[in-house]
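Entry 12.
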Amino acid sequence: QVQLVESGGGLVQPGGSLRLSCAASGSIFSIYAMGWYRQAPGKQRELVATITWGGSGSTNYADSVKGRFTISRDNAKNTVLLQMNSLKPEDTAVYYCYADLTSDWYPKDYWGQGTQVTVSS
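Predicted 3D structure (tokens):
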């Protein structure tokens, strides 16, 4: 069984920073990629950032967060980190950790429970 546990969400003022962390645990054979999605009220879930586990890690960011968010990884700890700077009210959403990994036979997608990020003055 695989579990993704997120931490670091909370309330922050516009222009502030938060750091999200997600650790994958359980029966994991190999991780292909991890990342973050978010869903704001009344909106569809959207990709925020992803990073692959091979090599130095290939990153992908949504246009709306480029230059403000930085995704990184700790392969030894099966952990992905999202440093969020210059936060805007539009960043308010539930952030979901995502993992593409192999636990048994085939690679599968896994999701965390979500952590609330609120940017408000």
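Annotation: DSSP finds no helices and eleven strands in the chain. The radius of gyration is 14 Å.
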